């Protein structure tokens, strides 16, 4: 059953469910436009990883640039190696100290041949005849824990494939179609994690940015207590 297709919130209410907790996670992958020309060698991390798990091999990955610094970026980089990539780089706009990925992810990736490019932001990509030729980057520096572009530090890298791994957010269009209010990529909830619809709750990555498993579980427990005390 898929919510919004063959399952509706009203159907669950009619079946006697008084309260419903939404734990769908942040499903909409974040990207940004690199080129006005089309290419099939720019991937979202979830699509790329799904292809690998479904044993759908992607040929001619060549040199791969993974944009991001979280655990998923390292999953994507190591998966690219397993799929036969020639070289794999992780480009992250901040430094190692501010990188959200676990240290063991970094160590394991480097041991497998992944190359790290810290303080590097990808600005655009050159695409010719559907093929990715190179990316333009700019070096950054950290000011108040934020990455700031360094003037006149632009450079190019020859790459054949790009994988975006810069996080995800709630699908606002989908939730709005259910009548649930959202703001800045998050579902709006009160202190008890109830949405604007009475009896409909949400938690985890739907309501918090850059959440962890522990924090997601905590939102579920808090919502459950609120439901029990109604």
In short:
By secondary structure, this protein is of the alpha/beta class. It has two domains: 9-27 and 168-228, FAD/NAD(P)-binding domain; 31-164, 3-Layer(bba) Sandwich (FAD/NAD(P)-binding domain).
Order of strands in the sheet with the most strands?
Answer: 3-10-4-5-6
Biggest sheet, open or closed, and with what strands and sense?
A: 5 strands, parallel
**β-strand number:** 14
**SSE order in H/E notation?**
HEEEHEHEHEEEEEEHEEEH
Question: What share of the residues lie within helices?
Answer: 25-40%
Helix/strand-derived category reads alpha/beta
The CATH topology of the largest domain is given as: FAD/NAD(P)-binding domain
**Uncertain residue ranges:** none
Highest CATH level, the class of the largest domain: Alpha Beta
Indicate the CATH architecture of the largest domain: 3-Layer(bba) Sandwich
**CATH homologous superfamily (4th level) name of the largest domain:** FAD/NAD(P)-binding domain
Strand content: 25-35%
How many domains, in number, for the residues? 2
First-to-last CA distance: 28 Å
Helix run count: 6
- Mass-distribution shape: elongated
Overall radius of gyration:
20 Å
Mean pLDDT over the residues: 94
């Amino acid at each position: 059953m898929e919510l919004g297709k063959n399952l509706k919130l009203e159907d669950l209410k009619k079946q006697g469910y008084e309260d419903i907790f939404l734990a769908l996670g942040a499903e909409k992958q974040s990207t940004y436009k690199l080129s006005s020309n089309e290419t099939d060698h720019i991937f979202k991390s979830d699509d790329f990883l799904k292809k690998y798990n479904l044993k759908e091999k992607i040929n001619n990955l060549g040199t791969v640039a993974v944009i991001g610094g979280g655990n998923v970026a390292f999953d994507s980089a190591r998966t690219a190696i397993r799929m036969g990539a020639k070289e794999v780089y992780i480009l992250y706009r901040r430094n190692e100290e501010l990188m959200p990925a676990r240290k063991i992810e970094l160590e394991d990736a480097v041991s497998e041949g992944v190359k790290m490019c810290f303080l590097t932001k990808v600005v655009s990509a050159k695409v010719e005849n559907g093929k990715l030729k190179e990316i333009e980057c700019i070096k950054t520096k950290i000011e108040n824990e934020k990455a700031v572009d360094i003037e006149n530090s632009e450079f190019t890298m020859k790459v054949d494939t790009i994988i975006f791994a810069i996080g995800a957010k709630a699908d606002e269009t989908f939730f709005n179609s259910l009548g649930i209010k959202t703001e800045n990529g998050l579902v709006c909830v009160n202190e008890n994690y109830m949405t604007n619809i009475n009896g409909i709750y949400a938690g985890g990555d739907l309501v918090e940015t850059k959440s962890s498993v522990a924090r997601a579980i905590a939102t579920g427990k808090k919502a459950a207590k609120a439901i029990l005390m109604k």
